[in-house]
Design brief:
By secondary structure, this protein is α+β, with helices and mostly antiparallel strands. It has three helices and 13 strands; from the N terminus they run αβββββββββββαββα. The strands form two sheets. Strands 1, 2, 5, 6, 8, 11 and 13 form a seven-stranded antiparallel beta sheet that branches. A six-stranded antiparallel beta sheet has the order 3-4-7-12-9-10, with no helix packed on it.
Length: 244
């Protein structure tokens, strides 16, 4: 291989690495479920018909606080949820007949003991700066007999809101769910002026749903990242040709 060709390959490799670094920084972490430095992992156990709200203030969470509502919708009298929040994940289940989990980001607020209060106090936040869709990383996911877990995602913008209902297939190991782009389902709310976000797992209370949620993110469109890489490669090729 001649020297100019080697130089070009080196420049191209460097460009791809640089573009990869740009794409890695492009995603935005909404919540990675790390326990705040001044608290311990929250372990939750309750029975029907109790509802439990777990509030976690932390600067690393979107809006400075996470609210989790655990709502037993299933069989009365049974232990319906055993899990923990923090230490890098949200563990839901073990034995969880008919339990729904709603995770809300609405800014720091004082929620009632048995329900989430949509304070809509995020600022607002411009999601489009970071990407055009949500991505949820699971360490494991078991939808029970249906082999799918239902998810509801709600974007609030002032007095408007949009809801996406979707199904996530079972996976015994790590997996990632990526939502459709905001443009396909956020019609009334404004993704550039979001005042609250809500993610509901198993909202209708299907029996025996278990999961371990690792991260909630906003990610850019995959084709956009590919175009960035291609554009950078073309630029480097032009530079190489001029030098040659």
């Amino acid at each position: 291989m001649n020297q100019p060709a080697r130089q070009f390959e080196c420049l191209l490799a460097l460009g791809l690495v640089f573009a990869g670094a740009i794409s890695a920084r492009a995603e935005y972490i909404i919540d990675d479920f790390r326990a705040p430095a001044n608290t311990v992992v929250r372990v939750i156990t309750f029975v029907h018909p109790d509802r439990s709200v777990v509030e976690t203030p932390d600067a690393g969470i979107l809006g400075g606080e996470r609210d989790v509502l655990l709502d037993v919708i299933g069989t009365p009298g049974l232990t319906s949820f055993i899990g923990e929040i923090g230490d890098g994940s949200f563990v839901f289940g073990g034995a969880s007949p008919g339990t729904a989990a709603t995770i809300q980001y609405d800014g720091v607020d004082a929620d009632p003991a048995d329900a989430l209060a949509n304070a809509s106090g995020l600022g607002p936040v411009d999601l489009t700066v970071h990407g055009d869709r949500f991505s949820l990383d699971f360490l494991s996911l078991d939808g029970g007999g249906s082999q799918f877990t239902e998810i509801w995602m709600t974007v609030y913008s002032g007095g408007a809101s949009d809801l996406l209902v979707d199904l996530i297939p079972d996976n015994a190991g790590p997996s990632t769910y990526t939502s459709p782009p905001f443009a396909d389902w956020v019609a009334t709310a404004d993704p550039a002026n979001v005042t609250a976000l809500e993610f509901s797992m198993n909202p209708i209370g299907i029996n025996d749903v278990d999961f371990e949620l690792d991260t909630i993110r906003i990610v850019p469109e995959p084709s956009t990242l590919a175009l960035c890489v291609l554009g950078l490669a073309c630029t480097l090729a032009c530079v190489w040709r001029r030098r040659k």
